[in-house]
Amino acid sequence: MAKYLGIDPGLTGGIALLTESSPADTGSSLNLWVMPTTRWTKDRRMVDDVELSNILRSNGPIDHAFIELVHAMPKQGACSMFSFGAGWGMVRGICAGLQIPYSLVTPQQWQKVMLAGHPKGSEKTVASGYWPAECFIARGCRKIHDGLLDAALIAEYGRRLIHHA
């Protein structure tokens, strides 16, 4: 059984574990987690390294992880950019520490493949086609969690890359 991990590394990101029983398997199972965070200061959060490590370790071995290569956006504050960069580095460090091989993929790379032929903002429609039983709503929320959607599509993009390599 091959396992592929898709990670949207932001504080509102997500983790998706795609498990297939064979390379031609179209009924791959999908497990989702909202990116775990912990309080850093009174009003700031950061990626919870212990919880993230526990999620990845308890679901191993993982064949390959695909981590979204993202960058700070203009007009973000220094504190916000610091916590964002720290979280992104932490995700990579935990994968390396757990000996999970990983690749960095830009949003443009995975969206070009996964959203081909669909209008901008159609992630939910595309993801629902692959996993019709999945609602992509985080526990305790009422609306779709973009981080979970992106992580799932990143994992599927990575699975396709591996099989076409």
Question: What does this entry look like structurally?
Answer:
- With 165 residues, this protein is of the alpha/beta class.
- Helix content is 39%, strand content 23%.
- The chain has one domain (2-164): Nucleotidyltransferase, domain 5, CATH 3.30.420.
- The strands form 2 sheets. It has a 5-stranded mixed beta sheet with strand order 3-2-1-6-7. It has a two-stranded antiparallel ribbon with strand order 4-5.
- Strand 1 and strand 2 (14-20) form a beta hairpin.
- Helix 1 (49-58) packs parallel to helix 2 (78-97), helix 3 crosses helix 5 (146-164) and helix 4 (123-130) packs across helix 5.
- The mean pLDDT is 88.
Task: Please write out the topology.
Layout: E1 2-8, E2 14-20, E3 29-34, E4 37-41, E5 44-47, H1 49-58, E6 64-68, H2 78-97, E7 102-105, H3 107-114, H4 123-130, H5 146-164
Parallel strand pairs: 1-6, 6-7
Antiparallel strand pairs: 1-2, 2-3, 4-5
Using brief descriptors, characterize the structure shown.
single chain; 165 residues; alpha/beta; Nucleotidyltransferase, domain 5; 5 helices
